[in-house]
């Protein structure tokens, strides 16, 4: 797609139903992201997410989506200790979860681990810029790459990931001009999130784009629907109809033979 100059849409999915819908919409890449920690599990960050969490949700997505490339995140501290442990956990996401590839955060520091995983025929997507698993070290979710030192390091990180064998690199919260520069330097695709329009593709968190998660709405997210309000309205209408007796009606109910009912009463 990059070679053809075709932009690459990517979204997150965490369950069977959304995976089916993403497949029907012909989304080429679906990410089972550790963002599920915040938008599904209710944590304040992605750090508490475990391997079991990711595997559980990847299984759902794999059952529902038969055509997209399914990428699963390696959670915090499941790949940083040493390359051998990273390889074992990456293998679990494919064997147990049904993912096709894995994604991990970091640049030059993690390149040897990427190389080891790729050597064992597990494709790896990289992730640089703002890496949410490092939120405590960064002091928050702030744009990175506005200083010469930060920008230079992000470029080095992206190049190191490509050299190590990553097939694509996510650029998160990176200034648009820097993303353009990196996208031109890399032969593999860049996938942006809050990184401007010149990346080879874009990824958005499902709950952000559908208006389902309102605890925090990122500036880089575009809301394509307001399902949160739609669902709240439906819940309220349902509750009211139960209370006033207008639901269920005969349409939503089932009948039985009156003769059988009379026999039952005799019994």
From TrEMBL:
Keyword list, A-Z: Transferase
Known pathway: Cofactor biosynthesis; (R)-pantothenate biosynthesis; (R)-pantoate from 3-methyl-2-oxobutanoate: step 1/2
Known catalytic reactions: (6R)-5,10-methylene-5,6,7,8-tetrahydrofolate + 3-methyl-2-oxobutanoate + H2O = 2-dehydropantoate + (6S)-5,6,7,8-tetrahydrofolate
Enzyme Commission number: 2.1.2.11
GO BP terms, alphabetized: pantothenate biosynthetic process
Matches recorded under Pfam families: Pantoate_transf
One GO molecular-function entry: 3-methyl-2-oxobutanoate hydroxymethyltransferase activity
GO cellular component, one term: cytoplasm
Domain of life of the source: Eukaryota
InterPro entries xref list: Pantoate_hydroxy_MeTrfase, Pyrv/PenolPyrv_kinase-like_dom, Pyrv_kinase-like_dom_sf
Family under the similarity heading: Belongs to the PanB family.
Protein name, UniProt field: 3-methyl-2-oxobutanoate hydroxymethyltransferase
Species of the source: Geodia barretti
């Amino acid at each position: 797609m990059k070679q053809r100059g075709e932009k690459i849409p990517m979204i997150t999915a965490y369950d069977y139903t959304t995976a089916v819908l993403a497949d029907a919409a012909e989304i080429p890449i679906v990410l089972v992201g550790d963002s599920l920690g915040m938008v599904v599990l209710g944590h304040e960050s992605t750090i508490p997410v475990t391997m079991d969490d990711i595997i559980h949700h990847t299984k759902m997505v794999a059952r529902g989506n038969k055509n997209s490339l399914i990428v699963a995140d390696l959670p915090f501290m499941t790949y940083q200790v040493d390359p051998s442990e990273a390889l074992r956990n990456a293998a679990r996401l494919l064997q147990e979860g049904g993912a096709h590839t894995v994604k991990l955060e970091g640049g030059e520091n993690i390149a040897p681990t990427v190389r080891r995983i790729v050597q064992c025929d597990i494709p790896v997507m990289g992730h640089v810029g703002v890496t949410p698993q490092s939120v405590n070290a960064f002091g928050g979710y702030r744009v990175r790459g506005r200083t010469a030192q930060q920008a230079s390091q992000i470029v080095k990180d992206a190049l190191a990931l490509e050299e190590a064998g990553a097939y694509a690199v996510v650029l998160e919260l990176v200034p648009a001009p820097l993303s353009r520069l990196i996208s031109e330097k890399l032969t593999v695709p860049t996938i942006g999130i809050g990184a401007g329009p010149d990346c080879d593709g874009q990824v958005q968190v499902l709950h952000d784009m559908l208006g389902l998660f309102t605890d925090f709405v990122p500036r880089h997210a575009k809301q394509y629907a307001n399902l949160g309000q739609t669902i709240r309205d439906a819940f309220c209408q349902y509750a009211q109809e139960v209370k006033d007796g207008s639901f269920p009606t005969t349409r939503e109910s089932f009948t039985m033979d009156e003769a059988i009912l009379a026999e039952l009463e005799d019994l």
